[in-house]
Amino acid sequence: MNLNGMKNGFSHLSRPSNAGFRGRIYLAEPPKDGEVLEFFFVSTDHLSKGVWFRDDQDYKVGMNYIAIIALCSGIKVLAFILMSNHVHLVLQCSRAEAGWFMNELKRRYSEYLNRRYGTDDFLRLIKVDIQKVSLEDESLERAVAYTLMNCVAANICLTAADYPWSSVRAYFTIAAPKGGRVGDLSKSARRKMLHSKAVIPDDTLICEDGYILPEAFIPVKFVESIFRTPKRLNYFLMNSSKAKQRLVREDGLPSFADSVVIAAVADLCRSLFRKVRVDNLNEVEKTELVKQVRRRFSADAHQISRVLSLPYSDVTRMMEAF
Known about the structure:
The chain is α+β, with helices and mostly antiparallel strands and about 325 residues long. It has 2 domains: about 5-240, Alpha-Beta Plaits (2-Layer Sandwich), CATH 3.30.70; about 260-320, no CATH class. The chain is built from 12 helices and 8 strands. It has helices at about 5, 55-75, 95-115, 140-150, 150-155, 185-195, 220-225, 230-240, 260-275, 285-295, 300-310, 310-320; strands at about 20, 25, 40-45, 75-85, 85-90, 130-135, 180, 205. The strands form 3 sheets. A 4-stranded antiparallel β-sheet has the order 4-5-3-6, sandwiched between helices. The protein has a two-stranded antiparallel sheet with strand order 1-2. A hairpin with a 2-residue loop joins strand 4 and strand 5. Helix 9 (about 260-275) packs across helix 10.
């Protein structure tokens, strides 16, 4: 696979079929003679100041970019999750391709953030961790489960299936996915939804909410065959290190998603200080805003730092004042 060619533009590559069967494991595509299946758990560092995704539109764009990169490169995404301040992926590819995939996601999404918010390319500096996992020792199953349970560990939802910004709903589902096809959209509507000019297959499934369904690019049968049964998948989810973190924090305070708090910050600035942005507040006003976010949303210093884009040290100092 030519990585250099892909960085400058995508060619139209068909989605690999879920053909091929080796023992109990469905392969995303038939293995070639001597081919070694490699899998990688790919993670970005957690942002301590600022977030990747501020609202549902941002999440939808992130979902679409993962799909576009997968469909156009042929790299297989087995599982993924988008959290407000970090991203996890489980990929079948080479190590170099895993690194390229995440760099391409950061590049594309940074351009989107700049167009929408005028932000600097802060994602470029985020470190990426790539760990090889295996079918032989169940580390692949654990990586998938860890990825999908991030939302539960973050107190955003009760179960992984309640979270829309991951691949969890693609596996062991009875109901057929609802939605249409990319080919049913006009050229302008397609570009508006995808925020990209990339060419993807017309039969790519899209949901009513405006993003590409994970079923359209994830080798679902392959992932299901790894776990074999829904019960075994659920076992790994419930025994994931993420699952073992408490659903409430040690101080007993509930948690709200970053996007919920971010949506309320502008209203708080207007109602409390008659100002539009956090950047317009003075030190006393920022301290009061930190206090209000803490009390109204039970946010800790890390979350407040992210949603207000304030240094963590400043937030902890302000919290000591009340």
